[in-house]
Amino acid sequence: MSEPTNSPEQPVFVERPTEFVIRDAFVLGIVPLVLAGFAGLAGWPLLGFACMGLTVFVAFFFRNPPRFLPEDEALVVAPADGRVLEVGEVETEGGEKMLRIGIFLTVFNVHVNRMPLAGRVVAVERSGSRYLAAFNREAEKANVRCAMTLAAATGERFQVVQITGLIARRILCFPQVGDWVRRGDRYGYIRFGSRTDVLLPARAEARVRPGEWVKGGSSVVARLESPR
Question: Which of the following is catalytic: 194, 218, 219, 226?
């Protein structure tokens, strides 16, 4: 699959976030950092260490390390870090059969999402209202979610779906309808514990099994050759 080229009709998405530590870390980490300072001045070392530990965890959670993308464009890369929950064929609401690969992210994984393939965004749909544990079967449809549908250069469609978890409360997805997004681009993230799925044409060849650990943007989860 060829990477998209820019044109007035095909704007290329500028990946975000790109900073090594996402800005949210500074917003959420300032409170425990200030408390750690006050605790130190007040002579409460245990509280100070606890608050400093929380500050370090926030910075660790919002890390955004660079990744090395495999060169073969037919290789589908993981959209997120985490453990593969399921690999199998599903049927969409429109009756189309697709290969779904679901990845569960713990609070210790990098939570920045990356594009598994290059494509043009044709739809971004948000739905759901609950916050069940991300590995719960009901969470797939009941939880707050953001499904982005894209068309590859070949015209085939695929999806990346961000799903909140038990303590996740915010999904960020930056591409707009009409944007071309490149394979491996960082396009958003989910705050605290979540799940990310990729749905591919049914003919795609899975390269992972449930239980395996993957890294977003570098681990290969499937192969999708251009149709002949």
Answer: 194
